[in-house]
Structures are given as C-alpha cells and as structure tokens.
Amino acid sequence: MTRLAARLGLALPLLQAGMGAxxxxxxxxxxxxxxxxxxxxxYKEPPARAARLVREVVAATSRPFGVxxxxxxTGPACLDQLRAVLPELPRGAFVTSFGLPDAxxxxxxxxxxxxxVIQVGTLADADTALERGADVLVLQGTEAGGxxxxxxxxxxxxxxxxxxxxxxxxxxxxxxxTGGDLADAVARGADGAMAGTLFVPAEESTAHPEFKRRVVxxxxxxTLVTSLFDIGWPHRxxxxxxxxxTAAGQRAPALFIATTRVDGREHxxxxxxxxxxxxxxxxRIEEMAMYCGRSCTRVTARQPAAVTVARISQEYDKARxxx
Length: 323
Known about the structure:
alpha/beta
C-alpha cells in the first residue's frame, strides 16, 4: 500500500479528478465504492446546492471520497462552499483544491479534521501548499487535460518536488489511463495518481454524450493547449480537444451558443466559455470546451466506473509484480 492509499483510506492509490460537468455525485460515489478516491466537483456550485450534492454522495457510499474546490475561480466564495459542505462530510472524507487555497480555507479544512489535497503545477506552489498544511500534493503536468497550473511535464515536476520533499505524499496528474501508467508513476517516486480524462466517458459521468464519444475516439494529437476558452476562467491555458473554434483563424463573436439546465433552470453559455458540456447542455456542443489529456489515446471504451477501476487495479498489480 502506498502512502497515498494509506493516508486517504483507499484500496487503490488513484484519485478521480473533480472535473466540472463530469464529476457529479454518481461518478464520485461509483469510483469510491470501487476502492479508488472518488471526487465531487463543486466548481461554482452555490453553497446550499453543494451541501445537497455532498449528501447525495454520502447516501450512495460508505467509502472515502473527496470534494473539489477551485479557489482561483470562486475567490472568497470558496470559503462559503467549504463552510457549507464540511459539516456534511463523513469521517474519512477529504478535500481537494485545484490550485492554492488561501490560508483561511486551508485552515478550515484542517480544523474540521479532513485531509487536505492540493493540486499544483510548480515547485514554488508545492512549497506554499505544504506551508498551508497540505497532507497530499497532486503534481499536475502539461500532459493533463483541463486548466494547466504549470509548464513542466509531469515527470520533471515530480523529480523536482520529490528531490526537495523526500517524505511528502505525492500524486501525479497527467498521462494516467492504465494500471501500467500508475505503476510507472509509483516507480518514479509518486505515491499515486489522479486521473480525469480516464473517467470522462464513464457511464456515471455527467459529461455530454458527444464529449464522451470524442474522448473515446481521440488520440493524443487531437488535443492542444490553448487560451481560447477564457470566459469565466481567464488567464489560465488549458488542454482541450480540437474543435471548429480552435481551427478558426480569428476569434468569432462571443454570442450565446448553448444552454445548460441545472435544477430546472436554463443557463446561457457563450462561445469561448470555460464551461464544458454536461448532460444537461443543448446547443452547439461541438464549439464548447472539451477538456482532454494526452492519455486519451489509451481511453477507448465507455463503461461503468467500477469496471474501469477494476481494470486499473488488475493492471497495476500485474505491473508491480513484473518489476
């Protein structure tokens, strides 16, 4: 058992990323029940709805799971989200932060007795995350899908952070789609990994069916790093699948191209929005951001999350035995 699995109470040292429009209660609970670390995306959820979503996960699994916050996007509202969900979290649940939480947010998690997992993309941010009490660092490389926190491939970032912090609990994010990938990361000094693209096509994922189809059919070179989808999340490059907007020679007007239904209400989505298409989205899906990492080459099927986790576990054990 790796230190990540031991620290978070997992059977498999693998965390599911809390990707907005993908990681709802169903996926989080399914991954958790299968023995990995399911994670619920809170993203921009209002506090009351965030608490309700947590209660749905609690009702669906007794295994450890996490909630994910994005302080860079929510700002001071991140603390409001945490104040709403921390009382709902059972013992053994953990909190993951995409990017650095402020000191008050980090303190609130520690005071509630839950492990704090912070995802970073630079050595300097790793320093700060540990200063703020991170129990686990997730080191995101440029291979990852979604918004990028740094400019280094995951292997180089892992080497840098491990050299400075030989006893820290470290997971990697970017390039993880098989048990062999997970075993390779552990062999290089990681204690586990986080995967996002792997779970986009899962049966329980709330990604739009077209998003799922495209991830399954994609290969690594169908992805690119761009800054196009910046409405709602500016100044942060992101890895997405090619689409008509990424191929266009110039930026088109930021008109509304889709709507997303949440709790019975329609929310308009402008062209170049950072929002990914979920199963409640209608409109010009092909023009929306579909976050996808280079690991998509090895993501080839739509199936229940439990089947994916079981496969990863078997491949991981086999790869470890062969080393």
